[in-house]
Every structure is written in C-alpha cells, then in structure tokens.
Amino acid sequence: MDVLTLREYETLSPFEIKDFLAKAAQKAAKASSLAYLNAGRGNPNWIATTPREAFFLLGQFAITESKRVLDL
Predict the structure, then answer these.
(1) SS (H, E, C) the chain
(2) Mean pLDDT of the chain
(3) How many domains does the chain have?
C-alpha cells in the first residue's frame, strides 16, 4: 500500500472504513469459492431487560445515596 492510499484512509470515519472493508470482503468472496459472513452489530435481543434492570437499579441506588448524603 502506498502512502497516498494510506492518507486517503486517514480521512475516513470508522463507519466508512467498516463499509469499505465489508465491500472488499464481499468482492473477494464473489471472486473465490469462499462465503462472506456479515457478522455486523445486529442485536436480536434489542430489549435486553436484564442489563436495563441492572442499570435502573444502579440509578435508584445513586438517587437514594444522593438524597441520604444531602440530608446529612
């Protein structure tokens, strides 16, 4: 890779780099017998209740402690 190409990559955002790499992988997969696996950031459990409950509990703790310290 030459310096000019590297300079062009420096101006790209992380998302643009991701898209570029995905397109390059798809093109390489079409040229060969290999399959392209897009392991993207999709989240099938978008509700994710357990971490949300934990975060909510942390928030409740923070509010309770803030009120307790404020009342001292």
Answers:
(1) CCHHHHHHHHCCCHHHHHHHHHHHHHHHHHHCCCCCCCCCCCCCCCCCHHHHHHHHHHHHHHHHHHHHHHCC
(2) 85
(3) 1
State the Cα–Cα distance between residues 24 and 19, nearest whole angstrom: 9
Nearest alpha-carbon partner for 21 in 34, 36, 35, 2: 36
**pLDDT by residue (tens digit) across 15-57?**
888 888 888 889 998 888 888 887 776 666 678 889 999 999 9
Q: Note down the domain range covering 53.
A: 3-39+47-70
